[in-house]
Amino acid sequence: MSTPTATIRVEIDGVATEVAPGTTVLDAVRARGGEIATLCFDERQEPFGACRVCLIGVDGAPGPVAACTTPCRDGMKVDTRDPAALRVAAATVELVLSELPGPPAAHTELAIVARGFGLQHGALRWPGAQHEVEHDERHPYLTLHHELCISCGRCVRACDEVQGAFALTATGRGFEANIAAGLHQSFRESTCVSCGACADTCPTDAITEISLLAMVEPGER
Ligand code: SF4
Ligand code: FES
């Protein structure tokens, strides 16, 4: 006799659904065709919960919670259009954009998420300090534009979890947060094996494969 599979009953935007134990709210929403904006999430990696862009409302919770790291609970009621959650998420993306010296390239995840919140780099409420342009272009296949880094950590996790190369390190905090290839080294001299996993996951083109960069029109960068 087979054992029935345990399921968890949740309500997403008023619609009841069943999910397997351990399913995150983000996965549950996406499984039924819904969408929640994300920046530090990559389905190939363990959820990290760093960017606070995937915020949603949960009945009874004191404030918005991150959908990517929140597991579904039986009886949970989720509101992906919760006004407070969307307001905080939009403000977070606006702050991230305000630190860039220029708009992100239109095809990047950051640009797509920003458009989703109706944000434009040239029309932000907080035009604050912006990162200095700093490029490491000594690597034969990858280019690292530090000023575009939003410290989402995806490249570091891709390098560690997917490739096991440990070539990239998160550095600094707050406005100074960035990534480094090894310590006191250039990207070329690090333990990088040129797999391209970091460029593939980067949501801003801060790390790009040089062959792909050459295909993007200069005005698009
Ligand atoms: S280089 Fe890209 S993937 Fe890496 S932390 Fe910065 S924005 Fe994220
Ligand atoms: S995508 Fe959930 S916190 Fe970044």
Descriptive labels:
221 residues, alpha+beta, Ubiquitin-like (UB roll), Alpha-Beta Plaits, 2 domains, 5-stranded mixed β-sheet, 3-stranded antiparallel β-sheet, 6 helices, binds iron/sulfur cluster, binds FE2/S2 (inorganic) cluster
Fraction of residues in β-strands: 15-25%
Query: Per CATH, which architecture of the largest domain?
Result: Roll
Apparent shape? globular
Helix and strand string, N-terminal first? EEHEEEHHEEHEEHEH
Number of domains: 2
Summed up, the helix count is: 6
Percent of residues in helical segments? 10-25%
Kindly report the CATH topology of the largest domain: Ubiquitin-like (UB roll)
Bound compounds, each kind once, are:
iron/sulfur cluster, FE2/S2 (inorganic) cluster
Q: How would a textbook summarize the main sheet?
A: 5 strands, mixed
Tell me the Rg in angstroms. Answer: 19 Å
Distance between the termini: 60 Å
Average pLDDT across residues?
90
